[in-house]
Design goal:
heterodimer, A: alpha/beta, seven-stranded mixed beta sheet, B: alpha/beta, three-stranded antiparallel beta sheet, 11% strand, globular, protein biosynthesis (chain A), Trimer_LpxA-like_sf (chain A), cytoplasm (chain A), initiation factor (chain A)
């Protein structure tokens, strides 16, 4: 009897143990993008002050108040500063309800790397919260957590992640435009069926299979603001390890949704109506979240609550949301109109007008200064008669008299702006030379935000792919060179080129084009660019013969032939002096049966856009060749 | 080392109490009544007295003052914390004086005569060491705790004197003291209660439901109807968050409206407040603890960035609008509050 009772109580106890696992969180204190450059060159983004409190403090406060008991903070850029800050803060006191572990590594390049590390170190035992270090929120996650746990219990481990969204009408200023998403979801089970970033897209496509999800309530929502808070199960870390190309959360979500039939994993969502959650992903969001904080939309996290428990940082809250820390002195006639936060020991001169501003500690502000939507950090000196509108002024800056800062200016650390200067809208002044950026690591940081930023996108994607293409080209050249030297068979060459294709993620079409290019330029590489046409042809033709099987492997369909010819055209257009060689090349290629008459004829007849290629087609040699080709065609048909 | 353990244990408890304070004010943690906060503060102070290291009364008072400052800074709107600290400081002073042997209690008060005759500081700043001081102080704190537990019952016992049959009583929001008061009277008398709902948190609804369970006839009215309905009301009975030093109140928002309407109709306004809510603060620093919790306010106002939404939680009610204070030591007029305060707190402790 006792034995049976024991057996009964044991599974129940195991269940209770499972439920009482302390809630863990993974905080990624690096955003893996350069949105806050050049400010974040001196100070990591997580430590930038928002209403005079470092951003990471807000995130930790959010986690602690929602019941997290163990947090892992992952840092990459300037990790020592973050570690130092955390160790001095109240989170690392022995009495803190939330135990904070700081994990640093210089090798993290994206969210994916962090989660792979989480999996490798086996840090999380059960469901955990995943947030970034610049999330400001007061959402109570416990309900979403309950739903998540319930779902996982009911259908064994099918639901992998619950994302938390906030209802927010489109165009609302708390919505970051880069982050706009359109979500298709199952209304009853709150499952995400389709997820897409909507920025700058005029048309949206939804795959048909989402409509066959088996439920009859289906919603497509554009009124959701991504809070960048997710409840993840331990499987998330495993999935990141399994799929090495998942780098960002976006990749992960889309990958899961696409592979849903194979793997059966689902993502759900939780929409909050009350509760505030936003991520400070760029300066505009910084402005918005700062002003929301001052206007108390993120209650109970308010400036006078001093939740970070800093000594001497408690401020008084007066009418019109004016907050003053101890030691502030205000000159005669100065007005703090509304929504102002002034840090400790700041001295403000006479007849100033201040509104919608945050001023840090130990600042000295002169007379007749107008500050509107300005964010001024610590130890800033502002002389008389300065006007600042919607700008950010970092630590230790000196602004001399008569300066006017128009909208959206940024003065980074230690800058001195001289007397009587007016800065245009959007000026960024920094002590760091802009070219310095390029000698940072060549590895790309991969983050969701980069995809959205339209101008940066083309530059970055272009530079990224052309960089890889360059590498690939060099590698192919090297392969062919070795093939020549060591007399490697064509099959092996094909194998090598294929593996290079996968390594550099090049498409088949590009492979062929680059191959043609490399081969055609081979003689130039070997013997210099000044060789005569005859020398060129004599060098090239044997090579073509030797590598014919390689070509045949890649040029199979008519389309491939067209691409091949286009590529050849490109190469020869660059080298006008060697057009005579083109004929010989075409002849030999034709004879080697790499290309067929139809292909060549079609290419020739193609109307070309540039003057140069038209000129190419009028080349005597080429015309003769085409004529011969036509006759040959006829004759071959005649033979048959 | 047991000593070190005790100290860390003590500081852990203080830290957890502080974070509870910070969170409970926001409603994120468990919502607490003032009585609970007062009890927990006193228990914590007793623990500090027992476990902290101090040699004489002066040191103990310093320790308590320091912790007290931190506690009041954590949640300034929760005045019961500060009140209990001042009570304990007064207890320490009394026990010290008793140990020294000066039996006249009137020694504590500053009087013109004393200033002239004694000259200079009279006390030796509490430096003398007494072996039984600790035990005495702890015993006195235990008495304070017992008193705290009995406050609501003491107040309810006076209900029958104030509420007569077939009366119409008006109240606002939800006060546990008033609820107990009315329920006690309802056992023997039949009367009607009108509850003003006190938007936007509408605590009046909970009050009405709870009163209904005791078979009291209750009506709920919106705040705007207070003035209109006042002509039919016999008495207004309200609770409060704090009783200020001048006899005024810091009560839930809407109370000032209620008080003005009552004055206009010459309806007596009775405030049920236990003694631990009495605070030496004066109303010159209006701390208007603003909250923004209502979903409706957020949804449509948040769209306009130029709009500021304010949601103040407390009102100041001046003493001339109040008729009577009912506390655990009996009924008093507002003009007598200053005297009661001088019995509870030492003037040097008004500023922690």
């Amino acid at each position: 009897m006792a034995g049976k009772a024991g057996k009964q109580s044991r599974p129940r106890k195991a269940e209770k143990d499972e439920e009482e696992q302390p809630l863990q969180a993974v905080l990624v204190a690096d955003s893996f993008n350069r949105r806050f450059f050049p400010i974040s060159k001196d100070q990591p983004r997580a430590l930038l002050p928002l209403a005079n409190v470092s951003m990471i403090d807000y995130t930790l406060e959010f986690l602690t108040s929602t019941g997290v008991q163990e947090t892992f903070v992952f840092c990459c850029w300037m990790s020592s500063k973050i570690k130092e800050h955390l160790q001095k803060s109240k989170w690392c006191r022995p009495t803190s309800p939330n135990v904070v572990h700081v994990i640093t590594s210089d090798l993290y390049r994206s969210l994916g790397d962090v989660l792979r590390d989480v999996d490798a170190k086996a840090l999380v035992r059960s469901d955990f919260l995943l947030v970034y270090g610049d999330v400001v929120s007061n959402i109570d996650v416990s309900q979403a957590l309950q739903e998540h746990k319930q779902r996982r219990k009911m259908e064994k481990n099918v639901s992998v992640m619950t994302m938390i969204f906030k209802e927010s009408p489109p165009g609302h200023k708390t919505r970051c435009e880069d982050d706009d998403i359109i979500v298709a979801m199952d209304g009853k089970s709150k499952r995400i069926l389709h997820y897409q970033r909507a920025q700058a897209l005029k048309k949206l496509h939804f795959p048909m299979n989402i409509f066959h999800s088996g439920s009859d309530e289906f919603e497509i929502r554009f009124d959701l603001l991504d809070c960048h808070i997710s409840i993840c199960s331990p499987q998330v870390a495993e999935l990141f390890t399994d799929n090495f190309d998942y780098q960002t959360k976006n990749d992960f979500v889309r990958g899961l949704l696409v592979n849903e039939e194979i793997l059966g994993n689902q993502i759900h969502m939780h929409v909050t109506r009350d509760g505030y959650g936003a991520r400070v992903s760029n300066l505009l969001m910084y402005d918005t979240v700062s002003s929301d904080m001052i206007r108390r939309w993120i209650y109970p996290i308010t400036p006078e609550a001093n939740f970070a428990d800093q000594e001497g940082q408690s401020c008084t809250h007066s009418r019109h949301n004016v907050y003053r820390e101890p030691g502030v002195s205000l000159g005669h006639g100065s007005q703090m109109e509304e929504n102002v936060l002034i840090g400790r020991n700041t001295v403000i001169g006479a007849n100033c007008t201040i509104s919608n501003t945050v001023i840090g500690a130990n600042c000295v502000i002169g007379d007749n200064v107008t500050l509107d939507r300005a964010y001024i950090w610590n130890r800033v000196h502002i002389a008389n008669d300065v006007k600042v509108k919607q700008s950010v002024i970092c630590d230790n800056v000196e602004v001399k008299h008569g300066v006017v800062l128009n909208e959206q200016c940024v003065l980074a650390y230690n800058v001195v702006v001289g007397p009587d200067i007016t800065l245009q809208e959007g000026t960024v002044l920094s002590m760091h030379h802009p070219d310095e950026e390029d000698d940072e690591d060549e590895d790309e940081f991969l983050s969701d935000d980069d995809v959205g930023y339209s101008k940066d996108k083309t530059k970055q994607k272009g530079s990224c792919s052309s960089y890889f293409i360059m590498l690939f080209q060099n590698e192919v050249h090297g392969t062919l060179q070795r093939g020549l030297d060591e007399n490697i068979s064509c099959d092996n060459l094909v194998l090598e080129i294929n593996s290079l294709k996968y390594a550099y993620n090049i498409s088949l079409k590009e492979v062929m084009q680059i191959l043609i290019r490399v081969v055609l330029e081979f003689p130039f590489q070997q013997q210099g660019a000044q060789i005569s046409t005859a020398q060129y042809s004599s060098h090239l033709l044997p090579l073509l013969k030797k590598w014919a099987p390689v070509f045949k492997n890649y040029v199979k369909r008519p389309q491939d032939q067209m691409d091949c010819l286009a590529s050849m055209e490109e190469v020869f257009l660059e080298r006008e002096t060697h057009w005579a060689a083109l004929v010989k090349v075409l002849m030999s290629v034709y004879q080697l049966e790499i290309l067929e008459e139809e292909g060549i004829m079609r290419w020739f007849k193609q109307s070309s856009t540039t003057g140069k290629s038209q000129q190419l087609r009028r080349n005597q040699g080429l015309l003769k060749f085409i004529q011969w080709l036509e006759e040959a065609e006829e004759s071959s048909e005649g033979d048959e | 080392m047991p000593g070190a353990d005790k100290e860390t244990d003590l500081s852990e408890r203080i830290e957890s109490f502080l974070s509870e304070l910070k969170r409970c004010g926001s409603g994120a943690g468990s919502l607490r009544g003032s009585a609970e906060t007062a009890r927990e503060t006193t228990a914590l102070l007793r623990r500090i007295t027992a476990q902290a290291r101090w040699g004489n009364a002066g040191e103990l008072m310093e320790i308590i003052r320091k912790e007290g400052r931190r506690m009041t800074a954590a949640q300034p709107s929760e005045t019961t914390v500060g009140n209990m600290i001042r009570r304990v400081l007064k207890i320490i002073r009394e026990e010290y004086a008793r140990s020294r042997g000066s039996s006249e209690e009137t020694d504590q008060q500053e009087s013109l005569h004393k200033l002239l005759t004694s000259g200079g500081s009279s006390e030796d700043n509490f430096r003398q060491h007494f072996t039984h001081l600790k035990a005495n102080v702890i015993e006195a704190i235990n008495e304070l705790l017992t008193e705290l537990e009995g406050t609501t019952d003491n107040i309810s016992m006076q209900a029958l004197e104030h509420i007569h049959s077939n009366e119409v009583i008006m109240t606002i929001g939800r006060s546990r003291t008033v609820e107990a008061f009315l329920k006690d009277a309802a056992r023997k008398r039949k009367f009607h209660v009108i509850v003003a709902e006190c938007a936007p948190f509408c605590q009046g609804h909970e009050m009405a439901t709870s009163l209904c369970k005791e078979d009291i006839e209750t009506t709920v009215i919106p705040d705007a109807a207070i003035f209109a309905v006042m002509s039919r009301v016999n008495k207004v009975i309200i609770g409060t968050q704090t009783v200020l030093a001048n006899g005024g109140l810091r009560a839930v928002n809407g109370t000032h409206t209620l008080a003005l309407a009552a004055k206009h109709h010459s309806t007596p306004l009775i405030v049920c407040a236990p003694m631990f809510k009495l605070s030496p603060q004066v109303p010159d620093t209006p701390y208007n603890h603003t909250k923004l919790k209502s979903v409706d306010t957020i949804l449509y106002i948040h769209i306009l960035s130029k709009v500021n939404a304010h949601c103040p939680v407390f009102d100041y009610v001046p003493p001339e609008l109040i008729t009577l204070f009912i506390s655990n030591i009996g009924g008093n007029a507002p003009s007598y509050i200053y005297r009661l305060m001088s019995e509870l707190y030492h003037p040097e402790d008004h500023e922690l």
